[in-house]
Design brief:
Protein name: Aldo/keto reductase
Organism: Arthrobacter crusticola
InterPro entries: AKR, Aldo/ket_reductase_CS, NAD(P)_OxRdtase_dom_sf, NADP_OxRdtase_dom
Family: Belongs to the aldo/keto reductase family.
Shape: globular
CATH topology: TIM Barrel
Radius of gyration: 18 Å
CATH superfamily: NADP-dependent oxidoreductase domain
Keywords: NADP, Oxidoreductase
Structural class: alpha/beta
Amino acid sequence: MQTVTLNNGVEVPILGFGVYQIPEDQTEKAVADALAVGYRLIDTAAAYGNEAAVGRALAGSGIPREELFVTTKLWVQDAGEQHTVEAFSKSLERLGLDYVDLYLIHQPYGDYYSEWRAMQGLYREGRVRAIGVSNFHSDRLIDLITNNEVTPAVNQIETHPFYQRTEYQRLMTEHRVQLMSWGPFAEGRNGLFTHPALTAVAEAHGVSVAQVVLRWLIQRDVVVIPKSVNPDRIAQNFDVFGFTLTEDEIAHIAALDTGASVFFDHRDPGMTVRLGSVRVS
């Protein structure tokens, strides 16, 4: 498996498996199927409500812990560092692990400065191998970098053919922050799976549109975490290292960029209130 090296020297697989919106009663099997195919990066979050199911799949896989890379995320907490430590301990217990490989602030809301201070402490204690953020726009990311000792290793953000984040990736690379894509298929919006530009590339290589999108992200050095509950698609999404997109094909995909989210804007005041008011136990 191809890997990328984070700013603290930790290596992470460039292709992983995400479990967002997978119901808890389907998560254990989906993760077990992914691990059987060869995925070693598993991405979950406290807010997904399926950390325990992920933990059962990891425990039942028989795969040595050091071969796995487990990511989970901290939801918006009450102010104060202790709340972050408590939330982390609950995630660790649900996962059945002694440590996680990557711990992310899930949303750029609330007192994320106290969260980051607590996460820096967890990192120094060795309970987390790397820490980062998710859904942070450039201003908040650079502010966090400028005013803290530890630079986030990762920023997990919406990235797909219709919202490519190319300029933002350049900025993150300059500050040694790894881009990780969530929503690589845009949940099928804008007709992604039947888009003529993408289907033409897929037909040229004898692969699916999903495989083209994943290969495109990988060639951009973006870590990507597709999700599925279909065993055939899980396997197909992992089979993306046997072909290479040409410069012309990459240029055709680049033309699809709209520069805007297909879901919502994290800078929208209404979304700030909505997400910031949700509590996760």
